[in-house]
Amino acid sequence: MKKSIFGALAVSTMLSPVAAMAETEVQFWHAFTGRLGELVKAQVEDFNASQSEYTVVESHKGNYSETLNAGIAAFRAGEQPHILMVFEVGTATMMAAAGAVRPVFEVMAQSGATFDPDAYIGSVKGYYTSTNGDMLSLPFNSSTPVLWVNRDAMAAAGVDPDTDLSTWQNVGAALDALKAGGEECPLVTAWQSWIHLENLSAYHDVPFASKDNGFAGLDTEMMLNGEAQVAHLAAMGQWAKDGKFIYTGRRNEGGANFRAGDCALFTESSAGYAGIKSEAKFDFDVRPLPYWEGVGNSPQNTIIGGASLWVMEGHEEAEYKGVGEFLSFLSSSDVQAQWHQDTGYLPITTAAGEATRASGFYDANPGTDVAVIQMTTNEPTANSKGLRLGSFDQIRGIIDEELEGIWSGDKTAQEAMDSAKERGDALLRRFEAANR
Amino acid sequence: MEKRVTFRGWLLPMLLIAPQVVISAVFFFYPAGQAIWQSLFIPDPFGLSSQYVGLGNFEYLLGDRFYRASFVTTAVFSILVTLCSMIPALFLAVMADRLIKGSGVYRTMLIWPYAVAPAIAGVLWLFMFNTRVGVVSWYLGTLGYDWNHVLNGGEAMGLVVVASSWGRISYNFLFFFAALQAVPRSVIEAAAIDGARFWRRFWTIVLPLLSPTTFFLLVVNVVYAFFETFGVIHTITSGGPQQSTTILVYKVFSDGFVGQDLGSSSAQSVILLFVVGVLTIVQFKFVEKRVHY
Amino acid sequence: MAFFKTGDTHGMVEKRGAGLWLTHVVMILGVLVIFFPIWLAFVASTVTQPEIVRPPMPLWPGDQFLENYSKALFSGVNVPVTTMLFNSLVMAIGIAVGKIVISLLSAFAIVYFRFPGKILFFWMIFLTLMLPVEVRIVPTYEVVAGFGMLNSYGGLIMPLIASATATFLFRQFFLTIPDELAEAARVDGASPMQFFWDIVVPMSRTNVAALFVILFIYGWNQYLWPLLITTDPEMNTIVMGIRQMFPSGDDVAEWPVIMATSILAMIPPVIVVVSMQRLFIRGLVDSEK
Fold first, then answer.
1. Which chains touch B (3 or more CB pairs under 8 A)?
2. I need a labelling partner for A63 at 20 to 30 A (CA). Which of A165, A180, B113, B216 fits?
3. A78-119 pLDDT tens trace
């Protein structure tokens, strides 16, 4: 590594350069910048300071998509890192690359680091677990969608801020009242496909794709044009038409509107907590994601979004021991509890959740446990364990396009979802061909 | 197209041309050949295995109505970007050319956007037009216009066109300004008699003199719109809403880097190669001809 | 730089009166519109986050200039902005100088010599006009990695030099150099390289300046390529650095710092363009002749 100003300014927790050279180096590529980037950096520094055999070198590689691309390109060139952060939609891509990744359960077994698969929360690890129960990657940052409520905006529109919003039926009534009360932006959302299709399906225990949402084979097909999904999207489409649901973009653009106090209700990841808390100048609530009363087995459980850590093949055995130690460190109850409290991401172990509750954090920060409860109340079913679809990042793009067709009134919900199925299936077939 | 006078020897010219030939071979021909080869396969992203599919990737693409539609989108986008970046540039250059005092200051201000990377230009324009929160869309809102480029395909197209054209206005301005400076003084003087006749003279005398520059910029700007704008589109619309701003290069990028579908992405590269080949021949023919003036 | 072309040839053109004022008004309006996004970025870099996120944001600079810029300069994403600016500078200058040098040489060879395979090489070089780096990026990455050039300036620069635009322009220019000059040089017994250094290079000066500006900007503005081949943060460039300041997922973008960095990233290319604009314009005029 080049010497530079950065070296001179480097954080004091780094060990002396001489000692560092003797250590085994573990490369860790992640997608976090800003505040989250600082927290990751701190975790790495703590690990490096806690022992003297291994040095983890963390490196920010752009956003989720860019980080995955950098990892893939690097693997092709034999320059891959030991640990690569991959967002949840890249799971099928990573899983299919049998020669490129080393499953986490294997890494842990070989490294001899402490590892108890049962310590992890089922609905969190389920997304990253094979059908026979082996953990393939380590969940790192996981969140789940919840409903954010701007209490001031509710009150201003003459709606009781404590109205029960646990079902979409109730939300629909609240939206009517908000609109009637002069609210210009009653409902806004982030990550529409994740919340209003993927999670909607899991929450109502209906399939999103065949073959257990892709867990049981590459020959899976989209089933997102089912009755429950279409009914929900038709209702949303009507709300969009009536100006009760405002569409702001495919990502979390709606967050800016909500945080600025523009909108009353906001469906968004539980991990939005830190941002909302720091920018919102109004009273807000966290509520569980609403469900349709009487549809499917609702409320089942919601599924996660976020990223997990994959271990890549092609390194020295000694280095994998270091990887194992680092992953074990990350899973430890203290580190997890701290991460959960700092970021709003879910804890990945039951112990970390309990430690957080015991510390009184949930009482001091009401609403931060909503996501944990929503995820853990029921045991996940085949429909609510997660999704494992190839080219899923691109399929989400297709879903976004089709949803925009609904919001703008160009298509009915049924037409849009039929088209999304057809186009998504074409990509799934190509993925199947590439990974046969 | 040969010099009458040339030097003797073949070793020296070989040595002189060698660096370019080597760099082109290693960093252009080999990778481009790879891209063409890969277009016959469906490989897995990690390069661990691949399936030979012959022209299957091409069949898949040309059978996809969304891919065919993106040719139309690309044509519309390119024409709009070219017009929006050339007409204001020409107008401003003519204005700047009429001035002595102050022209330097205006010029300096006008060429700033050229220094802004397309990827960052996308950020700036999105920042201004963010629905409701962006400053321009907010003021539009107070005027009663509900700006919503995330759902309105026309507005989305308008926004990416403006964001893509913005830096190019500066670039084209520089070229037009330079060309106007080269127009013989007597022509300008004759044209400058008074306001009304100025424009008539401009159309009939000055503009034809600018035609080589104009045609050159036309080709350069079309190529720019084709290839260098994907950063803007990626930042502002990601090709949406629906597929209203998905241009060909953005699709190469998104299939290759979002979908990790290297087979489809390579096949699209080959198709683009063909399209640009035609454009290049046009450009080449034109410049060849111009030298004979 | 004694080649400033002054406006004196146009002295008679400027007329007094309403037309002049109108021209100024039009120019001012044009500048206002064109410059507005940059102004807004500057304003955003001098205010606090809450002022930006609660619309409407102010249109006049605030008092957070020092705070935001020092944060941008000294913290950055992975590395301080100064390091990224330096890397961008090396990359942009490397691309500009490298491309100009190899293009001058090969254009000279193509125009002033006859040698076996000339037509083949000629077409080989001009074919590279066709395919931008984005389209062949994965195989190019593998080549660069094969040479062990990831995380190196060589890797950042070389693949972007492999295009014939500059060669093409120099060839066009060399073809316009009067044959008498080469004839005279040959009669005087000057070697080809003496002719190159003493006649061709000095005559190309303004073209070189124009190309330098264009290529510098081209290199400075690269985004996807540096993103892919620099895995070591110490090698990051500023444009990718700015894009990386946007968080993944649900974190909040820190607008004032992002905008401050954007402004900092504009300064070097603006200095290049503005300081060389006269030479640049002259270079363009010359190549038009």
1. A, C
2. B113
3. 889 999 999 999 999 999 888 999 999 999 999 888 888 889
